[in-house]
Design brief:
about 35% helix, binds heme C, signal, Dihaem cytochrome c, Dihaem_cytochrome-c
Length: about 170
């Protein structure tokens, strides 16, 4: 065994202790420190199945329970009909969304109660706050509040800064 190894193991243990969270870490989950920050979507299945009508919303904009509830009712998807994915795709999608889901009370889920299942991002408390200055007619011109990309040209890359206030179809 090389002498560096025990040292590394000790360092890793110290780091693990320093970053330990009250809740047990989830297998395969995103780095807990990064998890509540909005990031670009990294799962191909999600992009393939969920970008036909809108962007693949960054996974931290919903809780794990809300994502599951959305996947459970795809045939009645906010007034649209979305085909139920094949088994493997469905599992991959569900796992990605669960692992990268936001946590209630943190980041864009600030103000969301722990047991709430908010199905709409546009009804989250952050949304009203962030868009308080955006007139209703601008949201209408965009095609609806759910069409983030009409005003946030880099939404699919996880960037919501510097929006076009007017919206664009
Ligand atoms: C066939 C088109 C279509 C596809 C494919 C689709 N959606 Fe949607 N989705 C919609 C429409 C339309 C709305 C909003 C309807 C409205 O508000 O009038 C919506 C809304 C949503 C919302 C809520 C947005 C809000 O209002 O805050 C989420 C979350 C969502 N979709 C997730 C998904 C996921 C996950 C997938 C992939 C499994 C998916 N969508 C695939 C049509 C689609
Ligand atoms: C009609 C245009 C419009 C639509 C549609 C829209 N936004 Fe915005 N959004 C804005 C404007 C304008 C601001 C505030 C000005 C700014 O920060 O550039 C803003 C601010 C934000 C912020 C805060 C950014 C920051 O840096 O503080 C977030 C996050 C955000 N929007 C997310 C979303 C999401 C998610 C959606 C879709 C579900 C969405 N927006 C749909 C126009 C829009």
């Amino acid at each position: 065994m090389r002498p560096a190894q025990p040292l590394l193991a000790a360092a890793a243990a110290v780091l693990a202790a320093a970053f330990a969270l009250p809740a047990p870490a989830q297998e395969g989950a995103a780095d807990p420190l990064e998890r509540d920050r909005t990031q670009p979507v990294t799962n191909d299945t999600y992009v393939r199945l969920c970008t036909g009508c809108h962007i693949a919303y960054p996974p931290n904009f919903q809780t794990a329970d809300a994502w599951q509830a959305i996947l459970d009712r795809l045939p009645e998807h906010f007034g649209a009909e979305v085909p139920v994915p094949a088994e493997r795709d469905g599992q991959d999608l569900a796992q990605y969304l669960r692992d990268f889901a936001g946590r209630p009370g943190l980041g864009v889920l600030t103000g969301v109660e722990p047991d709430a299942v908010p199905l709409r991002i546009t009804e989250l408390p952050f949304f009203a706050k962030a868009h308080a200055e955006v007139p209703d007619r601008a949201l209408q011109r965009a095609g609806g509040a759910w069409r983030c990309e009409a005003c946030h040209p880099r939404a699919q890359e996880g960037s919501f800064e510097r929006a076009r206030a007017g919206g664009q179809k």
